[in-house]
Amino acid sequence: MVVSLEEAKLFLRVENEVEDSLITQLIQSSQQTVENTLRHSLTEYDEVPADIIMAILYGVAYLYENRETADFKSMIQLMRAILFPYRNEVF
Q1: What is the helix (H) or strand (E) element at residue 82, kind and residue range?
Q2: Which of 24, 39, 56, 70 lies at a 20 to 30 A Cα distance from 80?
Q3: Is the residue at 9 inside a domain?
Q4: Which residue segment(s) compose the domain that 73 sits in?
Q5: What is the number of structural domains in the chain?
Q6: How far apart are CA 54 and CA 45, in angstroms?
Q7: Does 37 reside within a domain?
């Protein structure tokens, strides 16, 4: 994973271990969504750009805060805006 559990918890301002499993799953889900949006794996980068890390953290925070009512369309639209410069075009 590009974003560690500790980084995500700091971003979310979570100070306990009660939801570590949930946050780990959200990191994985957000990273997969980012890779799907980019149309390539993050393993292609020697150093992952800060914008991509921020998109992953945004996804984690959005999913964490909106567990019951997440609007995936709006989440992905914002991710696309952040990730556009890094996205592979497929013809």
Answers
A1: helix 72-83
A2: 24
A3: yes
A4: 5-86
A5: 1
A6: 15
A7: yes
